[in-house]
Amino acid sequence: MNVYNMTLEDLEKYFESIDEKPFKAKQLYKWLYDKKINSYDEITDIKKEVIIKIKENLNLNKPELVTVERDKDTNKYLFKLEDNEYIEAVLMRHDYGKSICISSEVGCNMGCKFCESGRRKKVRDLKVYEMVTQILLVEEDIKEKITHVVVMGIGEPFDNYENVTNFIKIINSPFGLKIGSRHITISTCGIIPKIYEFMNFPYQVNLAISLHAPTNEIRDKIMPINKVYQIEELIESIKKYIEKTNRRVTFEYIMLDGVNDSELNAQKLSKLLKGINCYVNLIPYNETENISFKRSEMFKIMKFYDILKKNKIEVTIRREFGSKISAACGQLRSKKEEL
Length: 339
Ligand code: SAH
What we know:
Layout: H1 8-17, H2 24-34, H3 48-57, E1 64-70, E2 74-80, E3 86-94, E4 97-102, E5 105-106, E6 124-125, H4 128-142, E7 148-151, H5 161-172, E8 184-188, H6 192-198, E9 206-210, H7 216-222, H8 231-245, E10 249-255, H9 263-273, E11 278-284, H10 298-310, E12 314-317, H11 331-338
Parallel strand pairs: 4-7, 7-8, 8-9, 9-10, 10-11, 11-12
Antiparallel strand pairs: 1-2, 2-3, 3-4, 5-6
Bound molecules: S-adenosyl-L-homocysteine.
């Protein structure tokens, strides 16, 4: 078993199973996540015999950091996993801290037409340790603490629900990486049964929905998931989610030239979201050479923004990060696999 798969509770159970006091779990967590050890030999406050047992049972393996592309305020990381698959993470420097965008699966089955990751089928779920160590490896690279985590890299987090929620427990733990729940965001294309499940997940993390269209007609064309879970039901589930959690939801909306960016689309979107405790994040599309969608021109994005504002929908335009360094979701992995 990889030790970075284990929640504090799992580790407490483990210590009980080898007849040791469960508080050792907290001690070990401190070594893993504060001191960031690379070998159990660095531990000074747990007895040798116990360390020997831990070594036998729990490995410290991490993926291999293959390449880093560096830009002014963005680093993009490519990792190789134990089975030679590749995943990516992106680090972004903001004035409020450092955020990391992590992957949740190898590939993705959602097949969104504009998305580089969706061009290939999902190979497998990421294990918990493969998500946790993306953060550890990037922190090791930058020698600084990551303050915000978004699960918006390759994969659909709600298609790997159990591992993603265990990942949240570990990084949020006050004995682990201590990333505040309000600094953690999960982004989903809208797998409705999981949205209902997530309402009862007792951590105050943020939820973002990749909406990208105001009508089923448009959404059906760009996001196959919409054929399974249509917009009305999606909005209904979000209303329930907000009722239950009292948390504001983000709707992501990629601006695709001539597809979803008209003034009428903005009016329809305003109507759809009226009265919902949410905000819309307009995202300038990151063009990628394998896909023919184009980014809306800035004046169109501004016009769209103005209409939402006028209709009293809270809206922001996403600041651009790393378009020079293959920052579109899945681009780095694609490059690697096409070599
Ligand atoms: N599957 C999840 C999370 C991964 S995608 C989801 O759908 O939310 C993260 C976000 O990036 C989504 O909003 C997705 O639609 C968007 N995205 C994908 N390709 C993009 C591109 N080329 N430019 C801008 N955003 C993109």
